[in-house]
Amino acid sequence: MNDDQDPNTNQNGWMKNMLIWAGVIIGLLVVVSLIDTRGSADRGSSISYSTFRDRVSDGQVKSVTISPDRVTGTYVNDEQFSAVRVENDPSLIPLLEEKGIDYSGKAEEQPSLLMYILLQSLPFILIITIAFFVLRQVQKGGGASGAMGFGKSKAKLLTEKSGKVTFQDVAGIDEAREELQEIVEFLRDPSKFARLGGQIPKGALLVGSPGTGKTLLARAIAGEAGVPFFTISGSDFVEMFVGVGASRVRDMFEQAKKNAPCIVFIDEIDAVGRHRGSGLGNSNDEREQTLNQLLVEMDGFEANEGIIIIAATNRPDVLDPALLRPGRFDRQVVVPVPDIEGREKILQVHMKKVPLAPDVNARTIARGTPGFSGADLANLVNEAALLAARRGKRLVAMSEFEAAKDKVMMGAERKSMVMTEDEKRMTAYHEAGHAIVAVHEEASDPIHKATIIPRGRALGMVMRLPERDVYSYHRDKMYANLAVSMGGRVAEEVIFGYDKVSSGASGDIQYATKLARDMVTKWGMSDELGPLQYEEQSEGYLGYGQSQRMMMSDDTARKIDAEIRKIVDQGYDRAKAVLSEHVDQLHTLAQALLEFETLSGDEIQEIIATGKLDRPDGKSIKPDVAPGIGAVIPRAGKRKGPFHDPKPQGA
After folding, report:
1. Where in the chain is the domain with CATH 1.20.58.760?
2. CATH of domain 421-621
3. pLDDT at residue 347 above 80?
C-alpha cells in the first residue's frame, strides 16, 4: 500500500540505488582494466620475433632490453617495440654485437600485488554488493513493485490527480447516496453523532447490478471525505505464492492504521470473499487463508479505530456470511437500476458535456429507456454524440438520440446483409404477426418500433416498451406475452402453410417455455399444481442464476411438464385466433414492412386502424397483397428485457 507520498517515490529511490551501485561496479572494472593495460602500453608496438631479427640485421634497431620472456627495444627513430622471446637462441647476442646495438638484461617482472588482490576479490565484492542491496530493500519494505514486494499491498492512494468526483456527479440513486453521505459527515464531524451515543459504521457493502454506479459512489466518497482514501481490487490479494494474500491484507491494514482516519475501498470483493469450504475436499486454499485474515483485520481481537471499509460487488449471494455480519459490514447499500426520475437526472449529468439541439428532451429519452443502468445511459449519450459527429453536425439532436437508443437496444443495423426476396417476405410476415398480436392483446406493452432490417444477431424484430417502469407482472400480461411470442410462428403457418414454418421462431419458443416454466414452478400460477414452489433459483444482480429442482416425485414432474405445455399451447391458440380474425391487417402490415423496412409504433397503429399509410415523403401502401412462397430463415438471437420480457420480439 502506498502512503500519502508520491506513489512513484519508492520506485524512483530503487532506481537511484541501482544506478549508484552499477556505477561503483563499473568503476572497479575500469580501474582493474587500467592497471592491466598500463604495462602493455609501456612496451610499445608488438612484433614477431622473426621481424625483430630482420630489423636488427637491417640496422633499424637502436637499443634492446632482454628479459626472460620478452624482448623490448627502441628503433633509431625512437619508437618502441616488443616481441615475445624464443628460448634457446644463442645467436641473438652475437648478432647484436655484430651490429653494434646497445643491449641490456632485465629480471622477470612480478605481478602487481594490488591488481592480484583486486582480480581475486572482485567476484566476492560483487556478490556482497548485491546481497547488501537486496537486504537494504527488504529493510525499507521494497514497495509493492520492488523485487521483494510481492507480499506488500497493492492498494493505491486516490488523489485529485485521478479526477475528482463529488456527490454532485452522482444522480438517480438518492437513497444510496444519502447512506454514504452520512459516513462522510461522520468523518468530518464525529462529535455530532457521538453526543447521542452513535458510533461510526465500520464498513459499507455496495451491492447492485453492473453499471449502476457502485464504483462511482466510492469515487464520490473519496472526493468528499477529505481523508486518505485507498483503493484496491479483490483480485489483487491472491497470487501464485502461498501466503501472499494474507500478507497483503496485513500490510494494507498496517498502512491504513498509520493514516487513520481513512477509507479503504475494495472493488469486486467477491473475488476474495466467497463462501469458505467450497473448494475441493474443503481444503484450506490460498483464497480462504486470505479471507480469514481479512475477517480478523476487519473485526478481530484488535480494534481498527478510524478505518472504514467500503466494498462493492454484484454477487452478494456468494459472499461468506461472516463477512456480511454487523461489525464488519454494518450497512448493505443497494444501488438499484434507476427509475424514470433517476434516468432523467443521469441523462442531464451526462448531457452537460454535449452540445445539445433545442429539440432534445431528457424526459422523453428517460421514458423510452426503461431498465437502463447509469452506464447504459452514459453509453447512449456517447453514441448519440459520435453519430452527430459522423453526420457532420455541430449539435446533437433528438434524432441522434433516437438512433443511438435503437442501436443500444436492438443492435447495429446490418444493411449490407444480402437476403433473398423469399427470406424478406418470410421475415416481414413473422414480424407483422408479432405486431398484430401485440396490438390486439390489451395487456401487452405498446409497440415502439418494428423492422425487418437485420440488427445484431436477428433478421428482424418488434420492439415493445412499457409505458412506465414495471416492478411486477400480472397473470394477464404473462399470457399476453406468451401470445405475442407465438405470433411470428403462427403468422408463418397461416400465410405459408404448415410445411413452410421456419426456424426463425427458436428464440420465441425458448422465451415462451422459460416464462411458462416460471409461472408453474415459481409463481404458483397453475390451477392444477397450486401455489407451490417447485424450483429454487439463487440469483444475484447479474441477471442469471442456477435453477435447482426441488425434491418431487416423477408424477409431479410429469404434471409440471404437462402444465407448461398447456400454458404454451394456450398462448399459441390465442395468437392463432387473433391472426385468423385479422389476416387482412397481417397482409397490409407485412406489405408496409417490405416497403419501408422500419415502422414506428404510431405508424403500425395507423395501418391497423385505416388499412393504409401515407408518409410525408409521398410514399404510401395499398391494402391488397398476396402471400408469397417463404424460405427457411436461419435461427437468430434476440434481446430480453427485465422479467424475461422479450424486447425485441423477432425472427
Report:
1. 421-621
2. 1.20.58.760
3. yes
How do 262-267 and 229-233 pair as beta strands? Answer: parallel
Q: Class assignment of domain 340-410?
A: mainly alpha
Please tell me what DSSP assigns to residue 358: T
Which residue's entry shows cell 412499457?
A: 466
**Domain span(s) for CATH 3.30.720.210 in the chain:** 45-105
47-58: b (≥16 Cβ within 10 Å) or e: eeeeebbebbee
Residues 276 and 460: their CA atoms lie apart, in Å, by: 47
pLDDT interval class at 282 (50, 70, 90): very low
Alpha carbons 304 and 285: distance in angstroms, whole number: 26
Residue 43 DSSP symbol: T
* CATH 1.10.8.60 domain range(s) in the chain: 340-410
Number of H helices, E strands in the chain: 20, 16
pLDDT number for residue 630:
36
Q: Are 643 and 405 in contact (CB under 8 A)?
A: no
Name the least confident of 99-113, 132-146, 580-594.
132-146
Looking at residue 3, what is its pLDDT?
Answer: 43
Q: Please report where in the chains the cell 405475442 appears, as a residue.
A: 484
Claim: this prediction has a pTM higher than 0.70? no
Which ranges constitute the DSSP H helices of 441-537? Answer: 475-496, 506-521
Query: Are the C-beta atoms of residues 406 and 458 closer than 8 Å to each other?
Result: no
All residues at 6 or more sequence positions from 18 whose CB lies less than 8 Å from its CB, including other chains: 133
Residues facing 156 on adjacent strands = 231
% of the chain with per-residue pLDDT over 90: 21
Confidence (pLDDT) at 31: 66
- Provide the pLDDT confidence category of residue 485 given band limits of 50, 70 and 90: very high
Pair 222, 158: CB distance under 8 Å: yes
pLDDT value of residue 167: 83
For domain 45-105, which architecture applies? Answer: 2-Layer Sandwich (3.30)
**Closest by CA position to 575, among listed 437, 461, 457:** 437
Catalytic option among 400, 431, 492, 563: 431
Q: Is 109 a residue of the active site?
A: no
